[in-house]
Automatic annotation (TrEMBL):
Protein's UniProt name: Amine oxidase domain-containing protein
Residues spanning the signal sequence: 1-40
Pfam families: Amino_oxidase
Claim: Signal is one of the keywords in the record: yes
Keywords: Signal
Source species taxonomy: Eukaryota, Viridiplantae, Chlorophyta, core chlorophytes, Chlorophyceae
Family membership noted in the UniProt record: Belongs to the flavin monoamine oxidase family.
InterPro entries the record matches: Amino_oxidase (IPR002937), FAD/NAD-bd_sf (IPR036188), Flavin_monoamine_oxidase (IPR050281)
PANTHER family, A to Z: FLAVIN MONOAMINE OXIDASE, LYSINE-SPECIFIC HISTONE DEMETHYLASE 2
Organism of this sequence: Raphidocelis subcapitata
Length: 485
């Protein structure tokens, strides 16, 4: 068995920035100011596009800096890719972000300040199975784990060397294939490499190795500390930001889908929604998900007038949206399965790469919930299966591993399809082959003193995380306040 659970990230998690929390208060101190002179009638100082964590954090800090702020959110709710359903029986069910990674950081400190209980989720390791038929599976042995982990360690070292030697155009799959070829691996060893690559990289970055940049896919800071889940639900974070922002006079408007951002006047920004409503401000903070920034206007994207600078357009192009979807299953209390939190599985060829990873919440929350993760190409559901089919297939995979008698029909199920969400077009950002390594910095760069950008995709150190979204929102607000004293 593996010695530790796989690292979890993405919109499911916040990452650690040791020593980030306390300095954040000092960072905010110079922004606290008396209210600015009132804007012209019908105008505000700042428009924030998007009411996820980045947008709400930016709005709160802007208001703290004395600005009048209006937030425009396309959804009928706030929170963005954090979406908690609180159920009397199942507790907090997370459709999107799930974990806080590392400690201390701004999220763990927020939990401490508010008295929110965090539940450690990485105290128990994992177990693995290889599917042998639709109804049977064999457990991966300790000897296999040891051999495969050694192979993967060798692969990681080789990838680090290739990152120094290779051009930016290479993808991660090229590096993996080169390693397999040069090491002359057996079929059994190749199976082990594929298993570990999926567990450590595909599930982590929510994209196939063909899509990930060899040189830059892992260009982020290392997590420090253990993983945890907020017992009351991750939505407590954006809800708290929303409450604080409203207390400072921030106006949050829901069901406002932005169609165009016009900053051609040079001294103001006009944001127009799909229903023709126009909002004017001295500047705007854009926290749209990368998938929306990439989409054409006819497909739900946003038009900028004039066009964004070429460096920013290139950054948007070279980043991609990863896809991580969940099938959430709630079972009767009589259900029996492994005592481990994580179950990794080698699928059948007919599984389309699905059902490689399962996460049990029973040891953590006490609820008999299992989350099946599908990542990358496997999460795109190219054969367009129904929710019922996905649930049935996930249950079949569990029964093959733990026995049909131990896995009854679920009492509860939910299926996510983040790649089809018109407000995200994916789960979280990844660095694609062809990237130069400066994309996140270029995405975050302001356009003059009119447009500021924030969101998980725009954070250099902790991209693809709630932590990164928070920090980028704070950074954008700080830059705007300094530009507009």
């Amino acid at each position: 068995m593996p010695t530790a659970a796989p690292r979890r990230r993405g919109w499911r998690a916040g990452t650690a920035r040791a020593a980030a929390a306390a300095p954040l208060l000092l960072l905010l101190a110079p922004l606290i100011a008396a209210p600015r002179p009132a804007a012209a009638a019908g105008e505000v100082d700042a428009i924030v596009i998007g009411a996820g964590v980045a947008g709400l954090k930016a709005a709160l800090d802007l208001a703290t800096g004395g600005n009048s702020v209006t937030v425009l959110e396309a959804r009928p709710r706030t929170g963005g890719r954090i979406h908690t359903l609180n159920d009397p029986r199942w507790g907090a069910v997370e459709l999107g972000a799930q974990w806080i990674h590392g400690q201390p950081n701004v999220l763990t400190d927020l939990c401490k300040e508010r008295g929110w209980k965090r539940l450690p989720s990485d105290l128990v390791g994992g177990v693995g199975y290889e599917a042998t038929s639709q109804t049977t599976a064999k457990e991966i042995t300790d000897a296999q784990w040891t051999a495969w982990e050694k192979l993967f360690s060798d692969l990681e070292e080789r990838i680090e060397v290739l990152q120094e030697e290779s051009s930016d155009g290479k993808n991660l799959a090229w590096g993996v294939k080169k390693f397999i070829r040069e090491e002359d691996l057996t079929d059994s060893q190749i199976k082990g490499v594929d298993f570990m690559v999926n567990q450590e990289w595909v599930q982590e970055y929510a994209a196939s190795t063909k899509r990930l940049s060899l040189n830059w896919f892992d260009n982020d800071a290392e997590d420090l500390g253990g993983d945890s889940i907020i017992e009351r639900g991750y939505s407590a974070v954006p809800d708290d930001l929303l409450s604080q922002a409203r207390a400072k006079g921030v106006k949050v408007l829901l069901n406002q889908t932005v169609a165009e951002v016009d900053y051609s006047e040079g001294d103001s920004v006009v944001v127009t929604t799909t229903d023709g409503q126009a909002y004017t401000a001295s500047f705007a903070v854009v926290t749209l998900p990368l998938g929306v920034l990439q989409a054409k206007k006819r497909d739900g994207g946003v038009a900028f007038s004039p066009r964004l600078p070429s460096t920013k357009r290139r950054a948007i192009k070279n980043l991609k949206m990863g896809v991580l979807n969940k099938v959430i299953l709630g079972f009767p209390d009589s259900a029996k399965w492994t005592q481990y939190n994580w179950v990794d599985r080698i699928p059948l060829p007919t599984d389309a790469g699905r059902w490689r990873e399962f996460f049990s919440l029973r040891n953590i929350t006490g609820k008999p919930l299992i989350v099946a993760f599908n990542a990358g190409d496997a999460a795109l559901y190219g054969d367009d299966p129904s929710d019922e089919t996905l649930v049935a297939d996930a249950v079949s995979a569990l029964r093959a591993m733990f026995g049909a008698d131990n896995i009854p029909d679920p009492d509860y199920s939910l299926v996510t399809r983040w790649h089809q969400d018109p407000y995200t077009f994916g789960s979280y950002s990844v660095v694609a082959a062809g990237a130069k390594g400066t994309e996140r910095k270029d995405l975050a760069a302001p356009v003059g003193k009119l447009l500021y950008f924030a969101g998980e995709a725009a954070d250099v150190d902790y991209p693809s995380t709630v932590q990164g979204a928070w920090l980028s929102g704070a950074a954008a607000a700080k830059a705007a306040v300094l530009d507009h004293p």
